[in-house]
Amino acid sequence: MADVDAFYRKIKLRLIESGEWDRMKATIGPKLNESGWLDDIKHKGVDRAHEMDQLSFQTLFEEMSTAGHVGLPLVVRREVQALIREYLEKQFE
């Protein structure tokens, strides 16, 4: 599992350094906004923060990360996967 985590970190670093990460975000961001996903996550985060007796950024972040992954529209998820797959194929030809 450590090898997979190290590989993931290397790929993410390459994406960031090459500017591909920002390009992917620019492609996906509007689609997430149009689908209502961004507003949904924001509202869930605000509601959850108000419910917490003692506000914990770490707990809130973890809960919203999980909610974000679970609630990600399938069409957007597939597009992100396709973009990453395309990038990896170019890198490892």
Mean pLDDT across residues: 91
CATH superfamily: ENY2/SUS1
CATH class: Mainly Alpha
- List SSEs in N-to-C order: HHHHH
User: How far from one another are the termini?
Assistant: 24 Å
> How large is the share of residues in beta strands?
under 5%
Shape: globular
**CATH arch. level architecture:** Orthogonal Bundle
Q: Report the uncertain regions.
A: none
Number of domains: 1
What is the radius of gyration computed over CA atoms, rounded to a whole number of angstroms?
16 Å
- Structural class based on helices, strands and sheet pairing: mainly alpha
CATH-defined topology: Serum Albumin, Chain A, Domain 1
Q: What is the β-strand count?
A: 0
Helix content: over 70%
Main β sheet profile: none
Total helices: the number is 5
Organism: Gymnopus androsaceus JB14
GO molecular function: transcription coactivator activity
Protein name: Transcription and mRNA export factor SUS1
Task: From the structure above, extract its key features.
93 residues; mainly alpha; Serum Albumin, Chain A, Domain 1; 5 helices; single chain
